[in-house]
């Protein structure tokens, strides 16, 4: 399996795995049944942690460009699968909303 990353972008993958493992442990420890709103809560927590860490690590960009799409898909020093670390928080927030409202 090939995982494309640059800098510390691989932390995105490990943050996701760590929080999912913590979710599984806490749900079993507390005795809750696995419900979609609990999954939404933990998906949002992964997104917040990943966004904060990604913005902190990518605070110094390699070059600054103008334009909406160029600001989102910028040449970040820390990337995971060729996208900036913090950009991976958007699908996690969307997954959380999907779990919460389903």
UniProtKB/TrEMBL annotation:
Annotated organism of origin: Zymomonas mobilis
Keywords, sorted A to Z: Membrane, Transmembrane, Transmembrane helix
Transmembrane segments: 6-27, 39-58, 78-101
Superkingdom in the source lineage: Bacteria
Protein name, UniProt field: Uncharacterized protein
